[in-house]
Amino acid sequence: MRIAIDAHGGDHAPDAVVEGIRQAKEKWPDLKIILIGLKDMEDQLALDGVEFRPVTEKIEPEDKPTQAVRRKKDSSIVVGCQMVRKKEADAFISGGNTGALMAAGFFHVGRLKGVDRPALAPVFPTLNGKGILVLDVGANPEAKPEHLRQYATMGSIYAEKVLGFESPRVGLLNIGTEEGKGTELTREAYALIEKDLAARFVGNVEARDILEGPCEVLVCDGFTGNVLLKNTEGVAKAVFGRLKQELTANWMTKSMAALLKPRLKKFAQAMDYKEHGGAPLLGLKGPVIKAHGSSDARAFYNAIRQTRRFLQHDVISRMEEELS
Amino acid sequence: MRIAIDAHGGDHAPDAVVEGIRQAKEKWPDLKIILIGLKDMEDQLALDGVEFRPVTEKIEPEDKPTQAVRRKKDSSIVVGCQMVRKKEADAFISGGNTGALMAAGFFHVGRLKGVDRPALAPVFPTLNGKGILVLDVGANPEAKPEHLRQYATMGSIYAEKVLGFESPRVGLLNIGTEEGKGTELTREAYALIEKDLAARFVGNVEARDILEGPCEVLVCDGFTGNVLLKNTEGVAKAVFGRLKQELTANWMTKSMAALLKPRLKKFAQAMDYKEHGGAPLLGLKGPVIKAHGSSDARAFYNAIRQTRRFLQHDVISRMEEELS
């Protein structure tokens, strides 16, 4: 099992990446890691027992995805995806430019047989701490019913094998719970998914219920999923931010905040994406995992843990079997 | 100015409705209110100086909207909309079944010249307390670019005249900030709105930035808007709910919670839809206002206050002028 990792992806790269790998190597000493990084940073990125693959270019967060992938052929993102295709690596993890990673995955790793569009599938936090896999959150903004059907199957296999849910339930994001609600897309997708998954399909799920964990896999088009992801981040950040402001307003609230901290921290942790690893790009011929842009060492460690399970359970073959 | 109000809409009806009207009459003694309620509840609903319009039917929250509007012709929702069309009332407010109110508005009040689809336009809370008008949140799940252009104009007039924003800025909800992002719908709508509004159009707005108040009017298709609305409610409710749980876990946290309460309450109020009145259904020939289902007396009072401004500024004629 050889996992290629982008040294330069994310706000805290490369230090958080290197530290995450160090922790993973400590836990699984026989794990083979190939760290892809800028040639002139080789010394800084050196890690015992980790192979270094030098590159000469770097895709920046503000680069235009498709253009960057086309032009920066010797960047960590492009090289990582090519290594997966050439089977020089079994999987690739990056915390870099999401759009570029999706484009490079699509062009250089390639789609799995039976998959029309890959989907980006992060785990959203839920109040019960188990999380819910949401796909797609933006790989394919304009989805067709058939794409949503494929997401349901891929998400369901991933949730079972990698996230460890027994018979995961699948829901369809919609604006009402009754059948027939929503748009032409959701109505047609409903019929297709119901036919495929039968009892494991819980039907339509409304956005206000997501945090309660009404299912383990939630399917939607990439535009809506992306809005959902960013809105959840925005609202949670705003509420926590304002709360912090109120709790540190004066010496009295500050001393109370100190006492409350352990309790609030537990909650903040349950709501934290970092505990859930990265978001896989499902539907490609090999595992490509997007680590969150603000990933710290623990998040990279978790992304590696999750990628191990992805490979151990041979999720890709299972998806190909079910979809082709 | 005669405002018709549904006595039976919302979780706290009819008491919250009656109390909201009482408060409004106290503030504006010459305001004419027509309360539409079930005949056999006339005594309970009697209010000094308020006309009572008896009906024999009631649309329930769980009724199928279009069916209910067709069958229950003597319900408060259908009668209220018909009164607006016949000019027996200048506006109608209801906290009842949202789908039924939208259907009755569409069929019985009718569309304004130049409007293809009416839009439901609630005010979302923002951290600065000013709020942001979002439309559409579900009247028209499958929007076309031209609909979004009309929403931008209607929302902009409403935000200026009723919400009191001077030259309100208009944004387009999208999954990236650069022009060209998103779907065919958002790309085409972007061009149309930019042509119409010029400098007042701030371009694409991402969901994570909404609470910061990047603009005063935010335009989107009804499916996405509905998901956004319900997700915001769901996340805020979950975070506040969990916070309450942590704060009341034992005597120590309880005593701290008591001390923090005034501070947290101020914040909760800023985030509260009740302060912002109801959601107008824009694009109809007369004002129809949806009060939130969980409206209390204060929310109904605010919905009346807002409807007064709607009528005083002759918003409907202004929209007709701009759009036809």
UniProtKB/TrEMBL annotation, chains A, B:
Keyword Acyltransferase: yes
A cellular-component GO term for this protein: cytoplasm
Enzyme type, top EC level: transferase
Compartments reported by the entry: Cytoplasm
GO molecular function, a single term: phosphate:acyl-[acyl carrier protein] acyltransferase activity
Record InterPro entries: FA_synthesis, Phospholipid_synth_PlsX-like
Keywords: Acyltransferase, Cytoplasm, Lipid biosynthesis, Lipid metabolism, Phospholipid biosynthesis, Phospholipid metabolism, Transferase
This enzyme's EC code(s): 2.3.1.274
Catalysed reaction, written as an equation: a fatty acyl-[ACP] + phosphate = an acyl phosphate + holo-[ACP]
GO biological process: fatty acid biosynthetic process; phospholipid biosynthetic process
Pathways involved: Lipid metabolism; phospholipid metabolism
Assembly: Homodimer. Probably interacts with PlsY.
Function: Catalyzes the reversible formation of acyl-phosphate (acyl-PO(4)) from acyl-[acyl-carrier-protein] (acyl-ACP). This enzyme utilizes acyl-ACP as fatty acyl donor, but not acyl-CoA.
Family statement: Belongs to the PlsX family.
Entries under HAMAP family matching the protein: PlsX (MF_00019)
NCBIfam families (UniProt xref): plsX
Protein name: Phosphate acyltransferase
Source organism of this protein record: Thermoactinomyces intermedius
